[in-house]
């Protein structure tokens, strides 16, 4: 991806015009922090703007920039993305991260997590072709049994589910991070930044008491940030989510994003079946024979209605 020789020759020939390659390590609306990739620059960070009104750049994007000052620059191009994770409502869409290979959905019981949000994250991951890992954090606190019970459904669907306590022992997650570019997502206060701190003690990412977060109505993490775990593994911390709209999905993408629906798709009586209430629907039939749960069908119906509006 990075052509070192090319970059350095351009650099020496005409430094102000040289295009330098880097990765977006933080995205703050219209400002982006770009870490230069060429080893010559020792991961130097440049504060960048974009040309014109272009803002469709996300944390994790590989970009080429032109320096305008020692520590400032302009993003000229975005390299093709391997993946793009985003969410959208009826009015706008928001990019969460580019080039991630894994989405880690962080849950906890205090404050309690919304199961619908978990499903929305899983659907977004499937639709973007990104693998998902579900983490139930804060297992040092009492009363996790109900939550663990709920998560059995997702294990049965084939998702990896881990229970841990970022405050006590982070080691169980480590094997899942090797060689991956992972983004941590979830509601505010679930412990995403605490997990990053436990993995990277030198970074001291800001975390905050949940009560304070709820009082102020603000999330502790306000922008996505990329951290390097090692040479081949990256972690992106993201601001707490309250909603995860999926308006960008087509109805076809939505039904395929329910992994357990796949064997039944195309087997309904009507080939344009919406799986809502049509006769001889293979999906509804699979619910009646316990091959698909009623909870997941209910979530599908809700999302289907939502994206069709
Ligand atoms: N008991 C316990 N508390 C935890 C654990 N992990 C995080 N916390 C606490 O939960 C609170 C919220 O943690 P954060 O890491 O700031 O949560 P976040 O998900 O990053 O929140 P936002 O940045 O607002 O999205 C802090 O007070 C943490 O100390 C854990 O494993 N056990
Ligand atoms: Mg945070
Ligand atoms: Zn059907």
Structure, briefly:
By secondary structure, this protein is of the alpha/beta class. 27% of the residues lie in helices and 26% in strands.
Question: How are the SSEs ordered, and which strands pair?
Answer:
Elements: H1 4-13, E1 19-28, E2 31-36, E3 45-50, E4 62-67, E5 72-78, E6 84-88, E7 93-98, E8 102-107, H2 115-127, E9 131-136, H3 145-156, E10 160-163, H4 174-177, E11 181-185, H5 192-199, H6 210-216, E12 224-230, E13 233-237, H7 251-257, H8 282-288, H9 294-308
Parallel strand pairs: 3-5, 8-9, 8-11, 9-10, 11-13
Antiparallel strand pairs: 1-2, 1-4, 1-12, 2-3, 4-5, 6-7, 12-13
Helix pairs in contact: 2-7
CATH hierarchy: architecture of the largest domain:
3-Layer(aba) Sandwich
CATH fold call of the largest domain: Rossmann fold
Work out the oligomeric state of the chains in this entry: single chain
Let me know the number of strands.
Answer: 13
Measured as a percent range, the helix fraction is 25-40%
Overall mean pLDDT: 90
- Residue runs with pLDDT of under 50 for 5 or more positions: 1-14
Largest sheet: 5 strands, mixed, barrel
Spatial sequence of strands, sheet with the most strands: 1-2-3-5-4
Structural class: alpha/beta
Give structural notes.
The strands form 2 sheets. The protein has a 5-stranded mixed barrel. 34% of the residues are buried. It is globular and about 65 Å long. It is of the alpha/beta class and 309 residues long. The chain has 3 domains: 4-78, Nucleic acid-binding proteins (OB fold (Dihydrolipoamide Acetyltransferase, E2P)); 84-237, P-loop containing nucleotide triphosphate hydrolases (Rossmann fold, 3-Layer(aba) Sandwich), CATH 3.40.50.300; 251-308, Ribonucleotide Reductase Protein R1, domain 1 (Orthogonal Bundle). Helices cover 27% and strands 26% of the residues. It contains 9 helices and 13 strands. Helix 2 (115-127) packs across helix 7 (251-257). The protein binds guanosine-5'-triphosphate, magnesium ion and zinc ion (ZN).
